[in-house]
Design goal:
The chain is of the alpha+beta class and 87 residues long. The chain has one domain. It is 44% helix and 21% strand. It has a two-stranded antiparallel sheet with strand order 1-2. Helix 1 packs across helix 4. The termini are far apart. The relative contact order is 0.27. The structure holds zinc ion (2 copies). The site of one zinc ion has 8 residues, from helix 1, strand 5 and helix 2.
Length: 87
């Protein structure tokens, strides 16, 4: 499982999000996301753009490129951001 070292919360792991959501968490910006239900990336938080991109993937190489942009956020920061985003 990929892990991340948060400057506020230390070592965190257990979640995956697309790079856009990761940026939004880090900069505290609002961004709509959908947890994926696809078996390859189940539970990964994807922004609308990445949901569209993922649906268009047909080749393994495209899937690899997509997965290389998936990042592990700090779980504590992600949960705080989730609360802020849903308010
Ligand atoms: Zn995205
Ligand atoms: Zn954190």
């Amino acid at each position: 499982m990929a892990k991340v070292i948060c400057s506020k919360h230390g070592i965190q792991f257990g979640m995956m999000v697309c790079g856009h959501v990761n940026d939004a968490i880090e900069t505290n910006r609002h961004l709509r996301y959908t947890p994926s239900s696809h078996p390859d990336i189940e539970g990964t938080w994807l922004c609308d753009q990445c949901v569209c991109e993922f649906e268009k993937i047909r080749l393994d190489s495209d899937l690899d490129a997509f997965l290389s942009r998936i990042k592990p956020p700090c779980v504590v920061c992600a949960r705080a951001w989730e609360r802020m985003s849903s308010e």
